[in-house]
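User: Assemble these into one structure.

Assistant: Restating your components, then the assembled model:
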Amino acid sequence: MLRSLQIEPEKCTGCLQCEMACSYHAEGVFNTAKSRIKVFTFHEEGRFVPYTCTQCSEAWCMHACPVEAIVINETTGAKEVIDDICVGCKVCTIACPFGTINYNTETKVTYKCDLCGGDPECAKACPTQAITYVDSDHGGLERMRAHAAQNLPQEGA
Amino acid sequence: MAWTRKVLRVNLTEGSLQEEPLNMEWANDYLGQRGLATKYLVEEIDPKCDALGPDNKMIMTTGPLTGTMAATGGRYSVVTKSPLTGAIACSNSGGFIGNEIKSAGWDMVIFEGKSPSPVYLYLEDDNAQLLPADDLWGKSVWEADELIHTKHQDPLIRIAAIGRSAEQGCLYAAIVNDLHRAAGRSGVGTVMASKNLKAVAARGTKGVGNIENPAEFFKATQEGKKVLAENAVTGEGLPSMGTQVLMNVINEVGAMPTRNMREVQFEGAGKISAEAMHEPRDNDGKPNLTTNGACFGCTIACGRISTIDQGHFTVENKPQYWGNSGGLEYEAAWALGSDCGVDDLDACTYANFLCNEDGYDPISFGSTVAAAMELYEAGAITKEHTDGIDFSFGSAEALAKAAEWVSTGEGFGKDLGLGSKRLCEKYGHPEFSMTVKGQEFPAYDPRGIQGIGLAYATSNRGACHLRGYTIASEILGIPEKTDPLETEGKAELVKAFQDATAAVDSTGLCVFTTFAWTLEDIAPQVNAACEGDWSADKMLEVGERIWNMERDFNMAAGLTGKDDTLPKRLTKDMAANSGPAEGKVNNLAEMLPKYYEVRGWTPDGVPTDETRQRLGL
């Protein structure tokens, strides 16, 4: 079963545990500046919104890459950057409409969410379940359940 | 090791910046943040120096767990000599800048001297610069934040700044970071202004590594998070209600200081409580509270994000206050509300916004306004002082105006910026001032809760609930319930809370975790992150060492055991007039000698040579 990261911003408190978990897994240090997932604070609106790669099926980054450094992980469905092939041309960062693939000035290659090989650290670290890792075919399952619960048949009806 | 082992020394007089290695010998004895920075301060300044002169220093410091995944590991502190109390000041704040400074590679920044003209410190990893701030001077915290972000074209910069109140000499000015979190107490913002330092802007991309034992660290922090999540206060009460969860509880036990502490229960508490913040308003159908928000790394998320009713008189035609910002915490709601007799939630929220916008402590501000209201009722202050405004208790208009004046230092704002002690002395009624060592009381009445009275009287930074939160035991039963009206055993209780808190304040973690955690939960996290052996026992010893070091500083600064006192109103003149504590005063005299004894101090409150030797001071 393929899974996807599901983000529910209304549950996010902006604590950045996800960013720390992500950066530690990928970089070996707690470093929100290098996190693949970012939480945005909308101060005026009083909202916190986590955002990361949605692993497009026809991924712009993958199609744009001139050296085929971005490949599909058949197990997880993640589009992964192969560091040894990437030449750091950054065309993928231009191609991605969402800004979720970025260039790392230290490693000189681009980086993006790779779903941690199928066990995403951000989802595990989130204390409020604002980020979950769910069945890709039923991303809307919990929302369906919530709406279904509003329409429970009345007792005796 | 968790420490970055690097200190940045900024000489503002000369405009020079220098990198130094962190003194690891001291780190082993004082851990970090509050303890370690205080050690640096007491070694480097004359305790008798003028707090607002160039000889005072100001240290912004992180802890070893700041910037890590430990729950709440994002704290920083500001350590300096306080202009409000003349004693040691150490104000702790959350938000996000603590992590940013640490991530840029610095354990602490020591500011010394005084800049000839306004500057701000810009930290981008190793690249540290003092930049001109002439255009920022005279601006609010919120304006300065925007201007710095715009100038550097970097939305990820985190900023701590002072507002206009500090520039105008308000003695309880705060340093506000991330728009609405603050190193709030004891006038640390006033010290920053005295150095012509407008802001610290940080951007860290190095991250925090060097965890001594990563596997152990993840295990310990995971376990810690589980404890927080499963605890009723940290897992449920604080996220949904914020610290405001206490308003109705404390009012019911008759320990809610009201109208400058003349009374102990506020009839309007329900209108400014957590419950009220959840109620939809008539005007727009929205509640005051939009959501809860977390500081860096915090899995509790007690922060309040609120709006003011756009139809409220305080924000009419002022769209700049119509959006969300930091909402009322219990201390602010009490000081701005109950202590001033104001039960107008929007007026309190407005005053709270202004405290953040221009950087001043809502506890000291609210208490000072309460004192002014009593002076007004006594005829010592008249409408001539207050620009024709009725300053009676309960006036939301007076509260809002007072905040506007203190923000800018205009009109009566200069006097209100003096704080309660100096204001009451100036207008001939020192007995109206509800302060210890010149610092205003927080939101728990020592007549209804005896132990907290001893904690206030002996607090090293003047009246404060965060130096020994015996409320946990006396009201909430954490770790075990003690009778709030009983004095027996409170000396030991206060000492235990004071020492443990000093240790927690030195880690980079938030003291609110201790609603659920003891040092037994915290020590394994510190131990796994840091080199050396960090048991709960060692942390407690470090805490006691810090407490005595702070005490030594205060004594050298000229304070004595005579300053360990409470206003007569609370010990003699005015017994609690309602509730479970009716007829009670605080029996400090019963507790204080015992406290000195359990501390290993002389009957005059001076640490004995034996005690100092035992603690390696």
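Chain B has a mean pLDDT of 97.
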